[in-house]
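Q&A log
Question type: sequence-to-structure
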Amino acid sequence: MLGPVILAASRSDRMRRVISAAPVTKQVVDRFIPGETVDDIVPIIERLTADGLELTMDVVGEDITTPEQAAHARDAYLALIGRLKALDLGERVEMSVKLSMFGQALDGGHELALANVRPVVEAAAAIGTTVTLDAEDHTTLDSMFAIHEELRKDFPQTGCVIQSYLFRTETDARRLAASGSRVRLVKGAYKEPAEVAYQQKHEIDKAYVRVLRILMEGTGYPMIGSHDPRLISIGQELARAAGRKPGDYEFQMLYGIRGDEHLRLAAEGHRMRVYTAYGTDWYGYFMRRLAEKPANLRFFVRSMISKG
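Response status: OK
Response body:
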């Protein structure tokens, strides 16, 4: 399986240098990351929302090494919020954040990440939108969930992400599927050991359905993060069985993947949110997109060969 190999490469400085230097890389990266600055991304936001889509914005970058970098990440999100305020789009454009980018892995990282993310959540609430805390590798999750719980005391709309490939996730889902919660369910995109995570696709998919049923039957707001046609169909069936109408849940997909499906779901009356990343520190995000789906890797390889 190439997925684990690619995920390992996402942490390799040597592979980062090789791939970043390839002439074709920027062309392919642009498929998934449509800009480096807020100025680049505003026209994308305007176009997608005009098409009836909603967005969650991610300023890419996670492997920070100093408190100053963490503060810079915080300020990047605050600058984004400043621009979103002028667009007056309310909850149609929210934000996703990785707590590693806010200093979670540094000394005293839990408190540092909470201190950095809180002003972002406050600023988002002030313009009528919210923030979702992205899940990262399993060693970070207890800290993420604790920060999520703390933020929800003042900002109950703050969301979080759970990953179906982890054994713990069904238990987490039962705890989170409560009134007012917002939970995005994804399969998972980090290299995890067999001691904590399912390794086979069919096991991950079955776990996804089990967890999604828990969320749909709960009283929170499920966010279905998948491009898999079968899981999208199952999600609609589970929503109907739970008595949910469109608007009582939403679909989320990545920018650059299955764009026609984004528009189809929105045209059918579903809430369809596009996860849209931008920024200069794109390498880790890009490599996980390649690992998630063989078609993405084939696209990259074909592009490199055709430009070679």
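Response note: The two ends are 26 Å apart (CA to CA).
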